[in-house]
Write a structure and sequence with these properties.
heterodimer, A: 201 residues, mainly alpha, 6 helices, 1% strand, B: 546 residues
Chain lengths: 201, 546
């Protein structure tokens, strides 16, 4: 097995370390950002639940959701969280090819989720401006879908950067990997809440 | 894993341009970014102040004869938005926070310098966008609250530009908040405990928690509002089955904490200035910390007191009245701590101290009317009248803006190495204080007698009081002139300040003025007692604690 760090790069890292050091708090900053992002979703959820409690749905308003497709979506995202974690295990063990394989599966699951979501949009009997619940449904799932899209793009970037030997993400520099993984778990967690609130309640 | 503070072994001076170019370029130095925030904010303050002048000229006479009513609506919307989002929030948080927090925690820069620069450079474009919307198709007309259905029915272009601009400013605010939290919690010099930090750090920590928790909710709400305007959805449009009250709840979930985002940093700055100029330790450090955190927690659960006339159910009125009244407790603790800090001190009544004392007086008046407004029976009568206008101007102008001026007088020697002229400064304070009270104190009377806010025309019986108020506004406008002259004159010909003109103990004064690029030439000093004034054994006790 070859080392993931090219020689000239590892010597650069050593030169960089001056006498003053601090711990790496980039993940801390990301967590703070994800809390903020979560609050945006919390605002949307609060709005949706209030609409549901206060605003009566009109007699001729169409607002019906099918369960099978979103359940499949939930499974896709939950499995993708697991595969991402698996890729991280292989990154720890310096096994780049295995890591890349599992990352590719994760990204594919993300894209599959998006395709499935688009399919649901096209088959639903209501449009964006039909009624209040339809609008809220599209706003919530759309905002989440935007997060999945960004996440999938970032997974692909990470996948490209874990290649050996040119890639910049490896056991020594795994912050980008950890950041995307944290973000992806966050997006999955939001989906679970969204699934419960929108489809099950 | 550890990462290094310095990007490379090149001397830091070579990393960025010097002179004026330094302040106009994309610098990553926290001091440069802080001053960029300050100057940029002050330019917007001049614009927002001119708009306020236009409002007061219009209100000299009962008829709308100075400008058309639509223009009046645009002017008051721009005035509110500019003053809140482009002057007070960026300056009390961004300017002084960026300049002082790394010094206070003993760091060489903020935790994420690049994010810091991004946060600043979002502000000028969004501010310019907001102002130019006036010349394109008319600016937003629905006030800084942008309540639907008004914001949906007024011309769409101005409202959409307003939404985009506020979204960008909110993003800037969130990035700044994340940066402050990371800097204060993670970048402290080894050996410095949280309870040894200067009070401004605690104020900024509390403010940043509020920013991170509440600003995204506003962003989400404004995105939904923009859908209502552009895509004709019906989230907040009653004619399409929507619910305007939901907008008000979500809006005030941000915008009530926004009051604390504007005023908590000001509390922190005053807590730095008072001990230095009265040569006494800050009274009740621990109670100050807990009252800041109390305000943060309570500040998140009082928003519906802005909505007592929006058909809120009785249980909600009861809860929010009580929660709001509770906020007076931590705020009162802070007020009495400041007075106790002054008590028996060796007070020097220089400009910084005068503005801080002016803040204490104004803030108590604004706080008392705030407690009064929290009571539902009273609030229902004065809601949306000039009483509310008077109340919040006592908080944000008499509170935050007085502190901003106080802080400029206090830290100008550190920023530039030159002293400001004291006589001009005292003159500035006297006209500002008289003008401010002359402008806003009569508005309590107007509101109690039922003059509604945000309307260009009013009942002729209010004319005399409005003219007195406008005279006060004229004095406030004039008071800016000695200040500007003072700054220009002092930068050019001012006396040299030396490193520590106030004999202060806080860390930013323990380096040269203006400080070098990475704050200290050698190691950062370990300041365990930032308020150890007037104690004979203060140096010894510091030695023992080491």
């Amino acid at each position: 097995m070859t080392s993931l760090v090219p020689k000239e790069q590892s010597s650069e890292i050593k030169n960089d370390l001056s006498k003053e050091e601090h711990e790496d708090f980039r993940l801390f900053g990301l967590i703070a950002f994800l809390i903020a992002d979560g609050m945006t979703f919390a605002g949307f959820f609060a709005a949706y639940l209030t609409f549901k409690a206060v605003n009566p749905i009109g007699p001729d308003a169409i607002y019906e959701l099918e369960l099978p497709l979103p359940t499949l979506n939930t499974v896709l995202l939950l499995v993708s969280s697991f595969t991402f974690h698996r890729a991280g295990k292989f990154l720890e063990k310096n096994e780049a090819t295995q890591c890349q394989k599992w990352l590719l599966i994760t990204g594919a699951l993300g894209v599959a989720f998006l395709i499935s979501q688009m399919f649901e949009y096209f088959t639903l009997p209501f449009g964006l401006t039909d009624n209040l619940f339809a609008s809220t449904f599209y706003a919530l799932t759309g905002f989440h879908g935007l997060h999945v899209t960004l996440g999938s793009i970032m997974i692909m970037i990470i996948w490209w950067q874990t290649r050996v030997p040119q890639g910049r993400v490896n056991k020594e520099n795994k912050f980008p990997f950890e950041a995307v993984e944290l973000y992806w778990h966050f997006v999955d967690g939001i989906w679970v809440v969204l699934f419960i609130i929108l489809y099950l309640l | 894993m550890t990462i290094s503070l310095k990007p490379s072994n090149t001397p830091p001076e070579k990393l960025q341009p010097t002179g004026w170019l330094r302040y106009l370029s994309f610098s990553l130095d926290h001091k440069v970014i802080g001053l960029q925030y300050l100057v940029c904010g002050f330019l917007f303050y001049l614009i927002g102040g001119s708009l306020a002048g236009a409002i007061r000229i219009e209100l000299i006479s009962p008829l709308s004869d100075f400008m058309p009513r639509e223009v009046y609506n645009q002017v008051l919307t721009l005035h509110g938005t500019i003053m809140i989002f482009l002057w007070i929030v960026p300056v009390v948080n961004g300017a002084f926070g960026n300049y002082l927090i790394p010094f206070y925690v003993g760091a060489r820069d903020m935790a994420f310098p690049r994010l810091n620069a991004v946060a600043f450079w979002l502000i000028p474009p969004s501010g310019l966008m907001l102002i130019t919307s006036y010349f394109i198709n008319g600016a937003a007309q629905s006030g800084w609250t942008a309540y639907p259905p008004l914001s949906i029915t007024t011309p769409a272009a101005g409202q959409i530009i307003w939404i985009l601009s506020v979204l960008l400013l909110g993003g800037s605010s969130i990035f700044g908040g994340i940066n402050f939290i990371a800097t204060i919690l993670k970048l402290r010099r080894p050996g410095l405990k949280l309870m040894q930090l200067p009070m401004y750090c605690w104020a900024m920590l509390g403010t940043s928690i509020l920013v991170v928790l509440s600003t995204p909710v506003l962003a989400g709400t404004l995105i939904l509002l923009s859908f209502d305007i552009v895509a004709h959805t019906g989230f907040f449009n009653p004619s399409l089955g929507g619910n305007v009250i939901v907008y008000q709840h979500l809006f005030w979930f941000y915008s009530h904490p926004a009051v604390y985002i504007m005023v908590l940093p000001a509390f922190g700055l005053v807590s730095e200035i008072l001990p230095i100029h009265s040569r006494k330790p800050l009274f009740g450090y621990t109670t100050m910390v807990f009252s800041i955190m109390g305000i943060v927690v309570l500040g998140l659960v009082v928003w519906a007191h802005h909505m007592f006339t929006s058909g809120t159910p009785p249980w909600m009125r009861l809860f929010f009245t009580i929660a709001t009244a509770f906020i007076a407790v931590p705020t009162g603790i802070k007020f009495f701590n400041w007075v106790a800090t002054l008590w028996g001190g060796k007070i020097s009544l220089n400009s910084a101290m005068l503005f801080s004392c002016g803040f204490i007086i104004n803030f108590v008046l604004g706080g008392i009317t705030g407690v009064a407004l929290a009571q539902v029976p009273f609030d229902v009568h004065v809601h949306d009248t000039y009483f509310v206008v008077a109340h919040f101007h006592y908080i944000v102008y008499g509170g935050s803006v007085f502190v901003i001026f106080s802080s400029i007088y206090h830290w100008f020697p550190k920023f530039t190495g030159k002293m400001l002229n004291e006589n001009l400064g005292r003159f500035h304070f006297i006209i500002t204080f008289i003008g401010f009270n002359l402008c806003f104190a009569p508005q309590h009377w107007l509101g109690l007698n039922g003059m509604p806010r945000r309307v260009a025309e009013y009942d002729p019986q209010f004319q005399l009081i409005n003219q007195i108020s406008s005279l006060g506004a004229l004095l406030m406008a004039l008071s800016t002139l000695p200040f500007l002259w003072n700054v220009v004159r002092s930068i050019l010909y001012g006396d040299n300040a030396g490193d520590n003109p106030w004999n202060a103990l806080t860390p930013e004064w323990l380096t040269s003025s203006p400080p070098p690029v990475e704050n200290w030439v050698g190691e950062a000093p370990l300041v365990l007692e930032p308020y150890g004034y007037g104690r004979r054994d203060s140096n010894e006790s510091q030695e023992q604690k080491k």
